[in-house]
Design brief:
By secondary structure, the protein is mainly alpha-helical. It is 70% helix and 0% strand. Helix 3 packs antiparallel against helix 4.
Length: 160
Amino acid sequence: MEKNASEPPRPGPVQRLLLIAGSAGLLLAMATDGLAVLGRHVGFAVNGAIELFQVCAVIALSSAILLATLAERHAAVDLLAGRLPPRSQHWLAVAGRVAALAAFVILAVGSAWVSSDLWPMHEMTEQLAIPLRAFRLFWLAACVAAAVHSAIALVREVRR
């Protein structure tokens, strides 16, 4: 069986794990929010629904950012770049890689800063007392991994 050039590569074990974690987080967030909305209409309250939604969203969003970065599938508009000469296209791609790297580094540094400030407080959600350290670390790890991958991709793009 011949592989189509436009077909994306099959996900590895890390991507599969991220996909499962992100999907589970998104499904649990939607289920929690849906149950809370239903409860408001029927007459029962789901205590901590917003807290559950937020921690599930951290897992889903962290996984999504890292998956998109590892698969080189971030949103891009090729309206102008496709009309430029190849050399200009190359340097525009380098500029895009620099911007992505800067964004992930800023997210990672800012998240590390906030985490270091809040670490000694043993931060928890108000109603359900969900400890937030693990979720902060998961987000930070995703940002650092995306930054590392972006740095490697930048080096490859410059060498091309």
